[in-house]
Amino acid sequence: xxxxxxxxxxxxxxxxxxxxxxxxxxxxxxxxxxxxxxxxxxxxxxxxxxxxxxxxxxxxxxxxxxxxxxxxxxxxxxxxxxxxxxxxxxxxxxxxxxxxxxxxxxxxxxxxxxxxxxxxxxxxxxxxxxxxxxxxxxxxxxxxxxxxxxxxxxxxxxxxxxxxxxxxxxxxxxxxxxxxxxxxxxxxxxxxxxxxxxxxxxxxxxxxxxxxxxxxxxxxxxxxxxxxxxxxxxxxxxxxxxxxxxxxxxxxxxxxxxxxxxxxxxxxxxxxxxxxxxxxxxxxxxxxxxxxxxxxxxxxxxxxxxxxxxxxxxxxxxxxxxxxxxxxxxxxxxxxxxxxxxxxxxxxxxxxxxxxxxxxxxxxxxxxxxxxxxxxxxxxxxxxxxxxxxxxxxxxxxxxxxxxxxxxxxxxxxxxxxxxxxxxxxxxxxxxxxxxxxxxxxxxxxxxxxxxxxxxxxxxxxxxxxxxxx
Length: 470
Hints:
Layout: H1 6-9, E1 37-46, H2 50-62, E2 68-71, E3 87-89, H3 96-103, H4 107-127, E4 139-143, H5 146-149, H6 152-161, E5 166-169, H7 171-177, E6 185-189, E7 193-195, H8 198-211, E8 215-217, E9 224-228, E10 231-236, E11 239-248, E12 265-274, H9 279-285, E13 292-295, E14 301-305, E15 311-315, E16 319-320, H10 334-347, E17 356-366, E18 373-377, E19 382-386, H11 395-408, H12 418-421, H13 432-449, H14 456-463
Parallel strand pairs: 1-2, 1-11, 2-8, 4-13, 11-19
Antiparallel strand pairs: 3-7, 4-6, 5-6, 9-10, 10-11, 12-15, 12-16, 12-17, 13-14, 14-15, 18-19
Helix pairs in contact: 2-8, 2-11
């Protein structure tokens, strides 16, 4: 570990390796039994995170008579769905710029569908009375170097033409909102982002599913799939589910469709949370409108206020482990926490002395185009979606809706999109994969340090619409 400033490290003295969202929350539901024996159903969903729960909920809303079973290898929301930062961004393409680079001709449609999707999430939360601290605060994408401000005016113009509601803020305007000496300007998305308690959202979707008759089995890892004449059979340690249709929502975990595994790698992202800010500390930083914030570097931070006025601060490092391993002992990374604390204090020097209380990490399913992709197997009896790349709190609902369209054979507007019909370029096999990712990480770090200038390696990746960032 690189030697860190003892002053910075003192802020981490009381940090605990646990999720802030799970700290004595009374809304956490009771666990579900494991699957025992053999059952049949119309639709089996594998995975009880956002994608799986949205799949089950939407399937029952479309057809209340449809029998739906969800199989989860751990407990509901145990993966990325319960441990993210709680940013519910409308974007379906990991940001507008990324979408324009890859799907320019369809971006007006994609942006409209994205806004509709976010509105439907809010309507679902209201309809099922889900207590998840939903706040439609908007988002600030701040420039912390002059080069990051370039292009924001043009992006705002294009987005507003497509029906978005974004505004460019000058240095003085953004610093008036949030008092940081680093800000050079910002792009403010007024209504394209909400803040949410991610664990409570999972639990609320779980309760909504149960209220409609969905059956959920936990601690029931699907070990393999079998193609049978009348459907697909999922084998778990103590039983099987034979379903006419199978929706696979495993995301970062190894896909049950082996040929899909080459498109995704597991990348670890880490988060800190401070103690609640005092009134004096809050006054020193402003932030009265509680916007979600992300900076505009290739390696970027995201941060927000929680309901008790703690600051959640994450991002920057994207840690890839050889062979794309996803293990629970990777969820704590002392070196990254020290880096995060250092960057936090540069952003908010007026908060020097504050304590960080919670720290955790989690794996993100990353693909080379940064946005979800879909596929089918077993003659269309199974479908999958993965590759959200860390911006899935809202887009998982869209991903689930498309997956159901594919299973039901519906030629909807969203199912006809190029982003649905085409897959990303796969990652190379190891050890080339590790070399590719490491070279790219070093190149984007150097670009951030040199005014955003992209070297020959990054220009080559740009040419083929490849990439890898935080």
